[in-house]
Amino acid sequence: MNIARDALGIGLRRPHVDALLSEHAPIGFLEVIAENHLDAGSLPRARLDEIAARYPVVGHGVALNLVGAEPLDLVHLERVRELVRAYGMPWFSDHLCWSASGGHRHHDLLPAPYDPELVPYVAARARFVQDFLGVPFGIENLSSYVAWGRDQMPEWEFYRQVVDASDCWYMLDLNNIYVSSVNHGFDPLAYLASVRWDRVLQVHMAGHLVRPDGLRHDTHDRPVCAEVWALYREAWALGGPFPTLLEWDDQVPPLPEVLAEVAKAASVRT
User: Fold this and answer.
1) CA 98 – CA 62 distance, rounded (Å)
2) 41-96: per-residue pLDDT in tens?
3) Is residue 188 in some structural domain?
4) Of 45, 64, 160, 237, which residue is most buried, by most CB within 10 angstroms?
5) 54 in any annotated domain
C-alpha cells in the first residue's frame, strides 16, 4: 500500500485495535512497534494481520542499539526483516542511540557523544541495517536529558553527517527536538535549518510533560503543545510535504481523541 507524502498517521496501540477493526478510521497509515510483533505465533501478530489488511503499516523499532559498542544483533534483524516483508512495510526506523552494553539491555534510549570520530562507525551500522532489511531505514533523533563532556558538535550536525554518510534517512521527531532544545538550551530552528528535507521519511509528533523544575520529559501521554505545533508549521514550510505521525503511548485516550489530535496537523500546515 502506498503512503501519500502528506499522509497523517498514528501509532498502533492496543486500546485502539478493536475500534480500528470495527470501522475504517480516517488515517493514512499506522506505525507498528516491531518488538511487540516479532513472534509470528502471538495474538498481537494475529491482530496485526487484520489491521494490515485495512491500513498501510510502517515499522518502528526501539531495540536496535545503533550506536552501541556491541555487534548488531543479527537474529533480531532477521526477525525484523521477516516482519517488514510480511506486511510490505515501505520503511523501517529506529533511534540514534545506544540501549545496551555488556550484554544487558537498559530499556532506555541513551545519547551518544556527538563526536565526528563516531560518524563513520554509526553510519556503517546504519547502512548495514538498511541493506539487510531491503527498505529505506529512518534514523530517529532522541529527546535527551544529559550531554557528554566530549561532545564536539551540535546534535543536529552529528545527525546530518550520519544520514549523509550512511545514505539512510531522517525519522525526524519534532517533539524530541523541542524537548531537547529546552533541556539543553539550543535554538530548535537552528536544528530545522540543518535538516536535508529530501531525506525525511516521516515526522513524529507527541506530547510531553513539563516537570516542576522546568525539565521537559518526553512522556507521549498528552496532546501536542503549542510550541511543538509551531515547530511543525515551520518544518512544513521548510520541507513539506512529509508523512506525519502522532505517538500516544501512555494514558491513551479513545481513538476519536487521538484522531482529532493528529488531524490538527492539516490545519496547522495550511
Assistant:
1) 10
2) 788 889 999 999 999 999 999 889 999 888 999 999 999 999 999 999 999 999 99
3) yes
4) 64
5) yes
| Phi-psi sector, 127: left (phi>0), alpha (psi -120 to 50), beta | alpha
Strand pairing category for 29-33 and 8-11: parallel
Domain that holds residue 159: 8-268
Please check whether residue 2 lies inside any domain of the structure: no
Q: How many domains does the chain have?
A: 1
Name the residue with cell 470495527.
22
> Please, which residues bridge with residue 92 across strands?
59, 137
Q: Decide if 168 contacts 136 (C-beta within 8 A).
A: yes
Question: What global pTM score does this model have?
Answer: 0.93
- Cα(107)–Cα(200) distance, integer angstroms: 26
Question: 131 with 124: CB under 8 angstroms?
Answer: no
Residues 162-197: tens digit of each pLDDT = 999 999 999 999 999 999 999 889 999 999 999 999
